[in-house]
Amino acid sequence: MSLAAKAILLWSVDILGSKWPIFTLSSRMRTCNLNFSTSSSTQVTRCFDEDCDDFLPWLEKRAGTEISSVLSIAKSAYGRSLYASKSIEVGDFMLRIPLNVQLSPCNLLPEINDMLSDNVGDVTKLAIVVLFEQRMGLNSDWAPYISRLPHPEEMHNTIFWSQKELAMIRPSTLYHQTMWKNMHIHNEFLSAKPALDCYTGTSGQFDFDDFRHAYALVESRAWRSTKGVYLIPFADFLNHDGLSETIVLYDDHTGQSEQVIADQKYAPGEQVFIRYGKFSNATLLLDFGFALPHNNHDEVTIHVKIPHHGSPLSVRKMELLKRFTPNINKDVHNFHSSWDSFTIREVKSAKGKGKGIPQSLRAFARVICCTSSQELDELENEASKGDGRIARLPLRNSSKEIEAHKFLLSQITLLITEYISSLKSIETTTLLCMTDKYTLRKKMARDLLIGEVRILKSASDWLKNYCVQLLDL
Ligand SMILES: *[C@@H]1O[C@H](CO)[C@@H](O)[C@H](O)[C@H]1NC(C)=O
Ligand SMILES: *[C@@H]1O[C@H](CO)[C@@H](O)[C@H](O)[C@H]1NC(C)=O
Asked: Which of 174, 202, 221 is the last residue of a domain?
């Protein structure tokens, strides 16, 4: 399993210049605070919850050092967030959190660690740490932190959705990703269970729901850096803004702390955001339980089926496509690694170059539309002589080229129909008792589908235009 950070982050050189020691990037693995606001809105949220006030002093006492003099916690409608308590300038250290107040798999009781099988990963180990701290309640040394982590009913990651709620996003790949993820977490649970049961005895067993909650907390709040997977109290109250350039840095030089430096000015009372990574709405919903309006990083993953599956010609096509797909893009969850899945982004202009529709998808369609093994031979020859990738150039026979793109168009049109009918049924479904939770998830499902269908339509417009242009030649 590689939960490696997906985040490719930018840093402005003036901040990271020689002034600072060597930092490595710590990336949020995935999920986090519930935050539905996006831009750096300036609303000042008062802390109605007195426990916000004692958290930082507790942590600083424990750390034996100051953690932040410019930030304070406030509770917004969507969970705890960090606000500027004083003016912050670009380049200021906003917080510095020493290792001794971070939670890692090293905090696992040695008795349990020894019993765990080797294939149990770091996320699971850290989830087990959280489980035991939760169970200790007020007796836990970490109680002030652990008790402030969101409860399952406050989390809206799609893994927590019911079957009925998930049915709303049936056409989206997120539906399958969610299934996959639940299965994955279940497998992790099964591999850890013997050790857990052995330690707790039969009376105090953890069940799958307990484990899944802890696992989701870790996945959504932990950071991964060169030193491993860590929960970083306080820093994990920072909310995500896809446009922010601020990130969490590990000080490799001293190896002692994790820090956040401001990349913009903040006035007192403004919420401070960082970017967890460049995530689409689907990823945000899967791992963090929220989506963003105007998400620049949106994309749709589509799965293309080969027609006449099983015929000798289609078997050959499949073999060619697999062989000539060089570096299959490995998604964090290995989900998009399949050779017949493609990630489409919004195509800005129907008359432009079609940036957003991957070349590999068009190549796929060209291979799929071959009707004889001679045509496949030609493509194969061309690939071996060229750069080793198959069907990257337009087919010489323009009717064939049109056919290939019409095939794509038909697949996408079909998908759009499915999205539209799902959206209709979301609108018309009314439950007898609409809970807030259901209403919120319904909105999330709707936003996801609307965003994805917009991307699909932009691709379909481009394909239509491409075919018309070829016809005119
Ligand atoms: C081009 O493709 C079309 C449609 O598959 C086919 O009917 C036609 O014979 C092809 N033309 C040439 C020159 O191969
Ligand atoms: C992402 O979700 C937001 C809000 O939840 C929605 O407004 C938006 O249309 C979605 N997609 C894109 C591409 O922004």
From this structure: 221
**Same domain flag for 332 and 429:** yes
User: Considering the domain boundaries, does residue 1 fall inside one?
Assistant: no
Task: Name the residue of 298, 300, 441 whose CB sits within 8 Å of the most ligand 2 atoms, as the mutation to test its pocket.
Answer: 298
Domain that holds residue 149: 108-221
CB 61 within 8 A of CB 33: no
Task: Give the pLDDT confidence of 52-101 residue by residue, as tens digits.
Answer: 678 899 999 999 999 999 998 887 666 788 889 999 998 888 988 888 89
Count of domains observed in the chain: 3
Same domain, 25 and 97: yes
pLDDT of residue 332: 41
* Phi, psi (degrees; rounded to nearest 5) at 89: -105, 160
**Ligand 2 lined by 77 (C-beta under 6 Å):** no
Atom of ligand 1 nearest to the CA of 371: 5
Distance CA 286, CA 464 (A): 32
In this structure, are 246 and 204 located in the same domain? no
Token readout for 11 is: 């840093």
Tell me if 291 CB under 6 Å of ligand 2. yes
Please report how many Cα atoms fall inside a 13 Å half-sphere around the Cα of residue 311, on the Cβ side.
11
* C-alpha dist (Å) from residue 286 to 165, 386, 441: 13, 40, 12
Identify whether residues 234 and 356 lie together within a single domain: no
Domain-embedded: residue 403:
yes
Name the residue among 85, 86, 80, 95 with its Cα closest to residue 144.
80
Q: What CA–CA distance (Å, rounded) separates 4 from 180?
A: 18
Query: Whole-model pTM above 0.85?
Result: no
pLDDT (0 to 100) of residue 221: 87
Whichever domain contains 53, its CATH number is 2.170.270.10
* pLDDT tens sequence across 213-249: 999 999 988 887 777 888 989 888 888 777 777 767 7
